[in-house]
């Protein structure tokens, strides 16, 4: 028996809601998100050159069931520590098609999502997720099940995904489209590899499908009285005792097994708020809420790429640096964070890199030749100023 039980009447007539206006809106969303070309090597700009005809053709294929997606283009993203995350990049045409389906499904499933789920839901974000778990800690929930699902996107069975969607959607054409997205396959080094399991990271619709499937876990935790916070496949359960955390772990393992998934034994742990744990780029603990070491390393690696010494300290370079600084600062300076001292040290490190790029050397006396005030006058912004 399926674990997904509909709590409302199923939706039947979604295909009829695919209109020229919806397809155009979907293209505009894909354009805003930018992204590289797929295996057909058609970029967003190339697709837009003949936009009306391309969208009309796509609309026709989506409505009559003849749509067939290209295989995904394999790309690997460096996760650090010698690990790589496999991404599947759809063609622009396929991204627009996925966005159309996502727009149709979102109003159906969003009201069903638990309010402790914060990932990829309009009006919810990472800062709210962290603030919620910090609120639980203040209420006395000091033990933490820091959970990690083993290869979630890569190991999620297609049958589970389809059953979760079909619990609310009865439009056969839409269900067929979703299955085509999931079974499109991957081109890697010129070799086609079929996909029989998982939902591709990089697909427009993948985050929504992840929420739809893991919504079952959310409500199971709710039914057993647990406090938790989830952001996509990253979640924590907070309890008042170690024994309760152990019981929560057993429940999570049983529920994930129903979904064809399992916890990572190496990355899942029971800890306390006093000791601290990593969540959504932060280390949360009773003493501080700071950047986790991996987040610091990611920023430094990006700065090293930009401040190679044969580069010149020009206005365009400063703007590139500012984009990274601004993005980092906006994320790591919510009102509850205690990152000022980290950001101050990182500011000094960034200025050292900039001075070394400017003088083509690393020398302490260059601090006086290009002071902090002079760098600010050239337009370089500071991480700490965002605190």
Helix content: 40-55%
Q: If you average the pLDDT, what whole number results?
A: 94
Give the oligomer, counting copies of the same chain as homo and different chains as hetero. Answer: single chain
User: What is the terminal separation in angstroms?
Assistant: 52 Å
Spell out the helices and strands N to C: HHHEEHHEHHHEEHEEHEEEEHHHHH
Secondary structure blueprint with pairings:
Blueprint: H1 20-33, H2 44-49, H3 51-64, E1 72-80, E2 83-89, H4 92-109, H5 126-138, E3 143-148, H6 152-155, H7 158-166, H8 172-182, E4 186-188, E5 191-193, H9 206-223, E6 227-231, E7 234-239, H10 242-258, E8 269-272, E9 277-279, E10 282-284, E11 289-291, H11 293-306, H12 315-332, H13 340-359, H14 366-369, H15 372-377
Parallel strand pairs: 1-4
Antiparallel strand pairs: 1-2, 3-7, 3-8, 4-5, 6-7, 9-10, 10-11
Name some characteristics of this structure:
4-stranded mixed beta sheet; alpha+beta; 13% strand; 387 residues; 48% helix
